[in-house]
Structures are given as structure tokens and as C-alpha cells.
């Protein structure tokens, strides 16, 4: 599947994290690695309210539907229901929650599939420290964010 940043109109300017602690967006985290969940939580806690941290895709869907967060951060490879399936279920059931994929997969087909599932952001785990908060801010603003570090050579 071929795609390009220009073809889908992505915006790549970086946004600063400017929210106050009294107006903190809500987040559900889903990853099957406890260490990754802990790292994401530490990274986001100063500016975001973490409503749930879950270890599989079905629990992610259940948490999003029950809690109605602003953002759902999903891994792609998870037990019971992968991130793509979880994103599709969330998109079908929740018009408000924005999807951010956080993954190791540096592949154009995965990026295209994520965007087709309704994701607003695609971030590589190896760049989560620099890219996750800008990705969330873009998603909250209704914009698309893709880690600039991705190998996008196949067009």
C-alpha cells in the first residue's frame, strides 16, 4: 500500500505542550509491556490524567467506552485484540476519543493501516520521549502527527 505525507495532507509542525494542570486531558493507555506502560505514565503524568493502563486491546476498548477519555494510546501488537481492531471498535463507538498509536513498527503499511483505522497519530516507541506529547497535542487539535523519524522511503 503506497502513501505519502503530502498525499494525505499531514501536518508536521511541532506544537508546544501548553495545557494547564487544571485543564488536563484524559488518557487511556494500552500496551502489553508493563515497563512501557510505566514509562508512558511517568512521561504524561505532569500534564495528563491517566484514567486507565491496560495490557490488551479488548481491555482498552472496554476502558475507552466506560471512561470516555480524550486520548487512547494504543500499541499495535497486543493480546486478545490488536491495536487496529481496538481502534476500529473505539472509532465505531466513540466519536470523541482520539487514537494515538505508539509502536515499534517502522513500516509504511502499518502507518497507512493506523490512519485508515482513524488514528490521529503514529509514534515510534524509540522516539516517545520527543514525539508522544506533540503527537497527543496534534490529535487533540484534530490534526495528524507521524513521527518524523520514520523510514518513509517506499513511495
Explain the overall architecture.
This protein has 155 residues and is α/β, with parallel strands linked by helices. It has six helices and six strands. It has a domain at 30-135: Response regulator (Rossmann fold), CATH 3.40.50.2300. A six-stranded parallel sheet has the order 2-1-3-4-5-6, with helices on both faces. Strand 3 (71-74), helix 4 (83-93) and strand 4 (98-103) form a beta-alpha-beta unit. Helix 3 (57-67) packs parallel to helix 4 (83-93).
Short description:
Helices cover 38% and strands 17% of the residues. By secondary structure, it is α/β, with parallel strands linked by helices.
Essential attributes:
alpha/beta; Rossmann fold; globular; 155 residues; 38% helix; single chain; disordered N terminus
CATH class of one domain: Alpha Beta
* Strands, total number: 6
As for the CATH topology of one domain, it is Rossmann fold
Mean pLDDT score, rounded?
85
**SSE string:** HEHEHEHEHEHE
Strand adjacency order, main sheet: 2-1-3-4-5-6
Largest sheet: 6 strands, parallel
Name the helicity range.
25-40%
> How many angstroms does the end-to-end distance come to?
9 Å
Strand content: 15-25%
Structural class: alpha/beta
CATH architecture descriptor text of one domain: 3-Layer(aba) Sandwich
Rg over CA atoms, rounded to whole Å, is 14 Å
* Overall body shape: globular
Which residue ranges are poorly predicted, with pLDDT under 50 across at least 5 consecutive positions?
Answer: 1-21
Could you give me the name of the CATH homologous superfamily of one domain? Response regulator
The number of helical elements comes to 6
Amino acid at each position: 500500500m503506497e502513501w505519502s505525507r503530502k498525499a494525505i495532507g499531514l501536518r508536521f509542525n511541532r506544537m508546544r505542550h501548553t495545557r494547564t494542570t487544571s485543564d488536563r486531558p484524559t488518557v487511556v493507555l494500552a500496551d502489553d509491556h508493563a515497563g512501557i506502560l510505566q514509562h508512558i505514565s511517568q512521561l504524561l503524568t505532569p500534564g495528563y490524567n491517566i484514567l486507565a493502563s491496560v495490557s490488551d486491546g479488548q481491555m482498552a476498548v472496554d476502558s475507552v467506552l466506560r471512561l470516555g477519555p480524550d486520548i487512547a494510546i494504543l500499541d499495535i501488537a497486543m493480546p486478545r485484540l490488536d491495536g487496529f481492531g481496538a481502534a476500529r471498535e473505539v472509532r465505531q463507538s466513540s466519536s470523541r476519543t482520539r487514537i494515538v498509536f505508539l509502536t515499534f513498527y517502522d513500516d509504511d503499511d502499518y502507518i497507512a493501516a493506523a490512519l485508515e483505522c482513524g488514528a490521529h497519530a503514529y509514534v515510534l516507541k524509540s522516539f516517545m520521549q520527543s514525539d508522544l506529547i506533540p503527537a497527543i497535542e496534534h490529535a487533540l487539535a484534530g490534526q495528524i502527527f507521524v513521527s518524523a523519524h520514520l523510514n518513509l522511503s517506499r513511495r
